[in-house]
Amino acid sequence: MLDLLDGETVTGGGTPRVQGYFYGGVNYLGNGFNFDGWYGGANRVRNDNPESELRFSSIFKLNLAAFISIHHFLREQEWTKHTQVRVEVSNVTDSRTKVRDANGNTPNRLQGAYLDPVGRTVSLTIRKLF
Questions:
Q1: Which residue, 43, 24, 35, is CA-closest to 61?
Q2: How far apart are CA 112 and CA 110, in angstroms?
Q3: End-to-end alpha carbon distance in the chain
Q4: How many separate domains does the chain show?
Q5: Which contiguous run of DSSP H or E holds residue 115?
Q6: For residue 110, how far is the Cα from the chain centroid?
Q7: Residues pairing with 26 in the sheet
Q8: Residue 34: which domain range?
Q9: Residue 85, C-beta contacts closer than 8 angstroms, at least 6 positions apart
């Protein structure tokens, strides 16, 4: 029998005791703002050899998006109908899980850049419906 909340593992990573997700937003006439986030608590992976025990830090990721309808600002221009500009920022806090063993070292396969190679991402999207 495995006790995943006490540090035993099936996948090689730990199972946090606390985790949660939230989202929300406001939208009016094609203009708006959305946000969502995820939190995972700190956890550990036990081993018979105390030197091999791994500790995973907690992580909080926040994503934001804002969008506007161009036609609300340039009503005289016919081409602006059904045109939307959207700006999204994923992982605003640029959070990555930090993994440490008993000596305070990070195993090579569990370095932050390997676990989440993208990090913070900013994107600009222009959408036009015809």
A1: 35
A2: 6
A3: 59
A4: 1
A5: helix 112-115
A6: 17
A7: 33
A8: 4-128
A9: 67, 68, 70, 124, 125, 126, 127
Confidence (pTM): 0.79
Burial group, residue 68, by CB count within 10 angstroms (0-12, 13-18, 19+): middle
Phi-psi region of 117 (alpha: psi -120 to 50; beta: other; left: phi over 0): alpha
118-129 in b/e burial notation, b at 16+ Cβ within 10 A?
eeeeeeeeeeee
State pLDDT tens for residues 36-92.
Answer: 999 999 988 887 777 778 898 999 999 999 999 998 888 778 888 889 999 999 999
Computed over its alpha carbons, how large is the radius of gyration of the chain?
21
DSSP SS3 for 113 = helix
CA 88 to chain centre: 12
